[in-house]
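2024-03-11 09:14:02 DEBUG pipeline.ingest accepted 1 chain
2024-03-11 09:14:02 DEBUG pipeline.ingest length=285
2024-03-11 09:14:03 DEBUG pipeline.predict start
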Amino acid sequence: MMKYRLPWRAGIVALAVCLSAGAAAQDSEDKVIATVGGKPVYQSELSFVEESDPQISRLPADQRTATALSTLLDIKLLAQQAENAGFGKDQAFQRRLDFLKDRELHNLFFKNRVIDGLTEEAVRERYDREVAATPPEQEVKARHILVDSEEQAKTVITELDGGKDFIELAQEKSTGPSGPQGGDLGYFTRGRMVPEFEEAAFALETGTYTKEPVKTQFGWHVIKVEDKRDTPPPNFEQVANQIQRILLQEQYLALLQEGREAVKVEITDEDLQKLFGGVDAQGNN
């Protein structure tokens, strides 16, 4: 149910989600925690350091704060020296700053327009809609006895016809890994077993076993079906995060489409045009 393959752009969505916590920290009062060369260092900048360095984020809480502060002060110290030495005035550096600004604005816009408005009610509504639209799938609970030859399988069937217990025979004669468990395969749906085995298992009535040996690539089987039922839908808690990601992706793509309709985007580099294979930056063929 609800298995989606997220496109490459979903990585940008994930980035925006990760940065939303840092953006939220700026919304509250941001106090000055230190100064470097007389310039203020803000509380929110600690979270920026933690987010940008996975090693720091994995430290215990007490060590994390101290390490983040030390790193932040080091960054500020060298940044001031670099600025005093005239670094950062070239065009390449300014373009990088422009890109970083655009990326942060992109993430803040996504947070404001999508993340902040995504409620549990919306996620649950989508869950209910998906469950209602997904027909139940039948599954069977089966056991089997796997042997090396057709004759051995026929002998097993004869013994079962004579009243022998299926579980005991599986423990005694089955060469499959489930033999010690009485041949128990648990519940499975269509597509989980090799075709010959699946066809025979789903054709059986509950409580019956195959009257003819079933041959597969693994050997010869005698199969017994103990139960049939419709697969229950997953609990809301099991798929809530997945549904949330799907909704975020859909709304992100909707934001992009809205932007494409309002702003013209054109790829002017011929080589990059060829990489898009005839698809322009608006997403049109």
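2024-03-11 09:14:41 DEBUG pipeline.report Confidence is low (pLDDT under 50) at residues 1-27.
2024-03-11 09:14:41 DEBUG pipeline.predict end
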